[in-house]
Amino acid sequence: MTATTNPERPARYETQASILTWERHTFGPSTPMQTLARAADELAGLFDAVATSSEPERIVGKATAAALALVSIGELLGTTDWLFGGREPRMYRPARLVGYTLTQLGLLTFDVELVSTGDPARSQSVALRNLRAVVGALRELVGCYGRDLTHEVDRAMAAARALQKRRAAP
User: Fold this and answer.
1) Cβ count within 10 A of residue 77
2) Residue 70 and residue 139: Cα distance in Å, rounded?
3) Which of 64, 96, 133, 159 is buried most, with the most CB atoms less than 10 Å from its CB?
């Protein structure tokens, strides 16, 4: 069943390009290392939320924010969709998923730094594989709470755009 005909999974509204356009207009440009630092901050908050057994809504929100922080890394690595395809959760232990995600983000940081400085020792495909591991683990974590990361990204962006509109209104 396609996303448009499945009533449990609404059509996707946001794309990597639409999010990047909004992000750059709202916050300005950032370097890959600044982006990865923001993702690390979001993952630290996610780790705290899982470790303190926070409400699922907070955990899902933190995981979504971490995924959104990585959108420009997807562009840097030449993918058109940093969220990639989904898969059902395989690891029903949120603490393990968060630990794995933090480890993969460390590897991604190393590889992105090499890619952005043009070091031929590491290929872009290695960094892309690490990005997929990070986002895949976030997708699985959100799935542990009965949610879909793509849908949560759409919800978070709708909320951010609405807040921006309210702030801009006279």
Assistant:
1) 24
2) 13
3) 64
Q: Are 64 and 139 in contact (CB under 8 A)?
A: no
Q: At what angle do helices 124-144 and 94-116 cross, to 10 degrees?
A: 160
pLDDT of residue 121: 58
The model carries a pTM of 0.86
Domain boundaries, the chain: 16-158
Q: What is the dihedral of CA 70, 76, 81, 86, to 10 degrees?
A: -50
Q: What is the dihedral of CA 73, 81, 158, 35, to 10 degrees?
A: 0
Q: Give the number of other Cβ atoms within 10 Å of residue 129's Cβ.
A: 15
Reduced 3-state DSSP string for 109-145: HHHHHHHHCCCCCCCHHHHHHHHHHHHHHHHHHHHHC
Asked if the model's pLDDT at residue 46 lies above 50, the reply is: yes
The mean pLDDT value for 137-151 works out to: 93
Across the range 84-109, mean pLDDT stands at 82
Percent with pLDDT over 90 in the chain: 62
Joined together, the tokens standing for residue 18 give 């639409």
Q: In this structure, what token pair is assigned to residue 129?
A: 């594989």
